[in-house]
């Protein structure tokens, strides 16, 4: 019941999606006609202002339609399918938690809205979102090859012009930083764990072929409703599926650059996402971390956990357990420093 009330509060703040728009090719006859009207003007320039206004409107209309068409697969142009665009959030109206230049540059950008068709049009519906898990995540693809993506950073996303130039890990870096910041802002104690900690220890960077971000938090999640609301206001979708998870929503300020129309709606784990793991201290002092499979199951000795240490990813500091190498050995084995792309793992 509480979730429904929170979703209702969020929905009241969000504008409706733009539904039922149809994309058509620019009308060449319309342009030609406008030019003829201009050529037929008498030398005395009768009604010059009116003519210029008409021409301006025609040109503006063509530019706007062309801009939309340029980002839509050709299949749309030869069909009569209805399409929709979400009401993408304006980065300039979002309150971020740091003065990093990424946010300054993001606010100065003009990003075209994504255009959805067929099954993807469900991404425009709020009712679908309320019960959705991965299937409300923005379809995103990305490269995972080294060395192209070895130093992937969220700053890379500010210069994208094609999904083919997107590094998956760049999207993950964006998710990691903003979810970590939002956890702190809502009174939680976050720390990097599993694969994200592994990248920090190996190279102080994101692992280029990684598929998700792993963030732990101490104790029960503080103010989960407030966290969901805050993340939604930034263009993220938080949902519970065994554990709390977060992905990029269709309303994200960069959705127009990140969206790949050739990627199907995700059922699970097929988009960039964040896993959030609860770590609680037991009565005997040991710490229980969700989904850890170590030599003592999910348990870690207190002296290996606190006080927290710090690690870096892309020159940004994050908290981690006191002994990151002990943890990684428990989680991945003695050879944890050896890169193992997903397909090679047993």
TrEMBL record:
The chain crosses the membrane at residues 45-64. The keyword Transmembrane applies. InterPro entries: LicD_transferase (IPR052613). The keyword Transmembrane helix applies. Keywords: Membrane, Transmembrane, Transmembrane helix. This is Uncharacterized protein. It comes from Phytophthora ramorum (Sudden oak death agent).
């Amino acid at each position: 019941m509480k979730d429904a009330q929170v979703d209702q509060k969020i929905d009241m703040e969000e504008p409706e999606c733009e539904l039922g728009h149809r994309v058509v090719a620019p009308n060449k006859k319309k342009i030609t006609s406008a030019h003829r009207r201009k050529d037929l003007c008498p030398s005395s320039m009768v009604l010059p202002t009116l003519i210029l206004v008409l021409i301006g409107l025609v040109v503006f209309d063509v530019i706007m339609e062309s801009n939309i068409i340029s980002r839509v697969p050709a299949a749309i142009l030869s069909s009569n399918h209805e399409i929709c665009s979400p009401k993408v959030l304006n980065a300039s109206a979002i309150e971020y938690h740091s003065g990093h230049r990424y946010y300054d540059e993001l606010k100065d950008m003009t990003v075209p809205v994504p255009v959805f068709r067929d099954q993807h049009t469900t991404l425009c519906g709020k009712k679908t979102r309320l019960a959705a898990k991965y299937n409300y995540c923005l379809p995103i693809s990305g490269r995972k090859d080294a060395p192209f993506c070895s130093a992937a950073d969220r700053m890379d996303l500010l210069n994208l012009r094609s999904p083919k130039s997107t590094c998956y890990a760049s999207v993950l870096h964006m998710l990691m930083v903003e979810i970590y910041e939002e956890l702190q802002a809502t009174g939680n104690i976050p720390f990097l764990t599993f694969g994200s900690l592994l990248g920090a220890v190996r190279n102080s960077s994101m692992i280029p072929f990684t598929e998700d971000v792993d963030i732990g938090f101490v104790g029960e999640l503080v103010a989960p409703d407030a966290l969901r609301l805050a993340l939604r206001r930034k263009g993220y979708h938080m949902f519970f599926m065994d554990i709390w998870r977060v992905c990029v929503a269709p309303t994200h300020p960069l959705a127009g650059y990140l969206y790949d129309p050739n990627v199907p709606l995700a059922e699970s784990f097929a988009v960039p996402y964040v896993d959030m793991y609860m770590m609680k201290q037991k009565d005997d002092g040991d710490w229980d971390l969700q989904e850890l499979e170590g030599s003592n199951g999910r348990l870690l000795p207190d002296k290996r956990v606190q006080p927290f240490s710090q690690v870096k990813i892309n020159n940004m500091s994050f908290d981690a357990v006191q002994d990151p190498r002990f943890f990684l050995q428990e989680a991945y084995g003695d050879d944890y420093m050896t890169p193992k792309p997903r397909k090679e793992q047993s």
